[in-house]
Amino acid sequence: MIRESSLALGGFANFRDPAPYMYRSHAVRPALCKTGIAASRKIMLAHAVAAMASVVIDGKITYGAQWLCTRWGGSVDAVILPADTTNLMCKTCAHRIAGDGPGVYRIFNAAGDLIYTGSSVFVSDRIMRHRLGSPWKDQIADVKVTRYPTLAQARTAEIRAIHDERPLLNVLHLPGRTA
Asked: What's the predicted TM-score (pTM) here?
């Protein structure tokens, strides 16, 4: 059954409504992006595709895409890009397809002592910054990461872990310790 869409994401790339639905009296159908990478014709920054739809208007197929990062939302005039364009991809999409996302990390020294607990949207970036610039970078021997669906969940888990596990170098979230 084809029905008129509310077009919540603008244009015809409305992925909240199951396809097919109508866009200006044209049927919108799901589309497959085999490479998983697309860009807006206006801003040629590659993004990982979360969902894609197509519509035929005046004999021309036009694609709409929703980006995995949702940073820019998506495009109602998307172009499918080759798989080797990941080096041109937005940073958020690149991290997401690499499996990097919100999480809590625990840093241990060579003796196996927990020295620091933190959370971040992009855990691998944050750990690299600790390895390069923290005053205690030479103490880092091991890192354990626990992933969470959202940053809010990761932050809550971080605070709980700091209170329960009492890492040696954390000063925030611990009574009596100051920076």
From this structure: 0.51
